[in-house]
Write a structure and sequence with these properties.
β2 (131-132) and β3 (136-142) form a beta hairpin. The longest helix is centred in the last third of the chain and has 37 residues, at 485-521. The strands form 3 sheets. Strands 1, 2, 3, 4 and 6 form a 5-stranded antiparallel beta sheet that branches. Strands 5-10-9-7 form a 4-stranded mixed beta sheet, with helices on one face. The chain is globular and about 75 Å long. The chain has 4 domains: 3-96 and 164-200, no CATH class; 102-155 and 204-244, Phosphorylase Kinase, domain 1 (2-Layer Sandwich); 314-439; 442-544, no CATH class. By secondary structure, the chain is an alpha+beta fold. The chain has 23 helices and 11 strands. Helix content is 60%, strand content 7%.
């Protein structure tokens, strides 16, 4: 989009912001001064904005600007480490609801994508949509065997519309980056990139189906969480067919009580499901607001949730997942020194940061919370405060952690609606410790070794050559430092450490491979022989590992 083409749309955005008196939110207000003279000529908002708080005015303005700006506001609401909390709370109320498109167009898209007339695909297809959003809308249908399904269909022309609006958002982000005095904190281009990535994922319904399928497999028992089945023969990039489910929105407390569901049991299950998704499966529903999390009214004795809408899912790099879990444990146990050490060890902060200062800052944030009863402490709110404090120490926060923070806020909100007295800390702590105990147990380690054994055996012939190259490099380093006795001594000590590390590494690797072979070839002898050999391999690594 050329600069001239975006001028009319930029003027439209500016006029809406001025109409809702949002120029006070933009510190680079001199950009608006020429337009302020035209304020009397601008269209008046549907509501009287003079007495509304700034967050509500911004929400109303984004709603008027259209669905893509609603999406941008939803993403911005998750960045509580960057924007004021009153604005974040208001933006979290944005609803992605727009007028539906014609059912005949939906029928045509389904037939085009699935290559058959609608009558061959479904016994009945209701052209009146059940729900409509900015990206897609949902229709009820029935299969020829009588099973009820829902069909999600992308809006016609949505790809081009989104591409155009994303270019506009990028231009607005660039203007904000250049002119806003706090642009380094707001990072507008990063926010736009998050919006773009989220929209790109939502435009592929086959990807959403794959996410639903994986989540269903992770909770195959269906005891705590039920995920509708995907009908792959009736799914393509622009069409997704799912099993139809019935439930109660998790914020409809009156209906849940009328159904006789135990809300306290349900709230505990919600917290447990969240930690299992994040730390057991490393795959979590990242849009878990009440509209997407229903309660099964048929399960009275054993309550459970029903998950919907799998367009936004999250996962963490394995290292971040480990460090985050350890941070949660340290936070549960109020070990502030360990929290500081973990932030640096994870690479989230520069190694040069003073740990005592970081520990004091963490303690300053946390201690006021721990004076309250644990049932009144919001872990999500505490994490937001910690992230805001840590930014003073050059915290580098990954987008995946922001998504996780948003999900935790949603889950805590649902949990406290269901049971205002729930002690989230008491529920989460043992669940997390159990998951970590299982995930990093010796048995799990041996299973991982067994899985990777073919890869290691394939690479084993190259290992002696790599060791020889390493020793040759050490030798060349000794020859370069012969003129300096002190440097020579240091180099010799380093060489001895390297030799020790290589020797113990070879021994440890051999023992671990041997343990995997024992387990693979003689399972009838039980777990103890391979476990003992494997522990000896770990011990060899520990002996050779440098102490500094």
């Amino acid at each position: 989009m050329t600069p001239l083409k975006i001028v009319p749309r930029l003027l439209r955005v500016a006029s809406v912001l001025l109409a809702y008196r949002l120029d006070d939110l933009v510190d680079a207000a001199h950009l608006f001064r020429p337009l302020k003279l035209l304020r009397p000529l601008l269209g008046r908002p549907r509501v009287n904005v003079h007495e509304l708080p700034r967050g509500e005015r911004l929400r109303l303005a984004l709603t008027e600007l259209g669905p893509i700006f609603v999406k941008a506001g939803q993403v911005l609401s998750t960045r509580r480490d960057l924007i004021p909390l009153d604005i974040a709370d208001e933006l979290s109320l944005l609803q992605d609801q727009v007028a539906p498109f014609a059912g005949s167009e939906a029928r045509a898209i389904v037939e085009s994508e699935l290559k058959f007339p609608i009558g061959r695909l479904y016994a009945r297809f209701d052209e009146t949509p059940l729900a409509s959003a900015s990206i897609a809308q949902v229709h009820a249908a029935t299969l020829h065997d009588g099973r009820e399904v829902v069909v999600k269909v992308l809006r016609p022309g949505i790809d081009a519309q989104i591409a155009r609006d994303v270019r506009l958002l990028r231009s607005l982000g660039e203007l904000t980056r250049r002119w806003h005095p706090n642009a380094d904190k707001i990072r507008p281009l990063d926010v736009v990139a998050e919006v773009e990535k989220m929209l790109e994922n939502e435009l592929d319904l086959q990807r959403e189906g794959a996410s639903a399928s994986l989540l269903k497999r992770n909770f195959a028992s269906g005891v705590d969480l039920y995920v509708p089945a995907v009908y792959w023969e009736l799914t393509a990039r622009r069409v997704l067919t799912l099993e139809r489910v019935y439930g109660i929105s998790s914020d409809d407390i009156a209906a849940i009580d009328a159904a006789g569901v135990d809300r306290k049991v349900l709230a505990v299950k919600g917290v447990r499901v969240f930690y299992e998704q994040v730390f057991r499966d490393n795959f979590f529903h990242a849009d878990a607001h009440p509209g997407n999390i229903w309660v099964d009214p048929e399960r009275i004795a054993e309550p459970r949730f029903i998950a919907l809408d799998f367009g936004i899912m999250g996962s963490l790099p394995q290292a971040d997942q480990y460090w985050l879990a350890q941070n949660f444990i340290a936070l549960f146990e109020r070990d502030y020194a360990r929290i500081a050490q973990l932030h640096v060890a994870a690479g989230w902060m520069p190694a040069a940061v003073r740990l005592d200062e970081l520990e004091a800052a963490v303690r300053t944030v946390c201690e006021p919370y721990f004076t309250r009863p644990l049932s009144q402490i919001s872990l999500a709110e505490l994490l937001v405060k910690l992230f805001q404090t840590a930014r003073r120490f050059e915290l580098t926060l990954q987008p995946q952690l922001i998504l996780l923070q948003k999900t935790l806020l949603n889950i805590e909100g649902v949990g406290r609606m269901l049971d205002p007295e729930i002690d989230i800390w008491a529920v989460a702590h043992p669940v997390l410790k159990r998951i970590l105990r299982e995930r990093y147990s010796p048995l799990r380690t041996l299973r991982d070794v067994r899985k990777r054994l073919p890869e290691w055996l394939h690479s084993a012939p190259q290992f002696p050559e790599l060791v020889s190259d390493a020793l040759r490099q050490i030798g060349r380093g000794e020859q370069r430092t012969l003129g300096d006795p002190q440097a020579l001594q240091m180099q010799r000590e380093d060489a001895r450490r390297q030799h020790k590390l290589l020797a113990c590494g070879l021994l440890g690797s051999s023992l671990l491979i041997g343990a995997a072979l024992l387990w693979a070839r003689t399972p009838q002898h039980g777990i103890w022989p391979p476990l003992c050999v494997g522990m000896a391999g770990v011990l060899a690594f520990a002996v050779g590992w440098p102490r500094r």
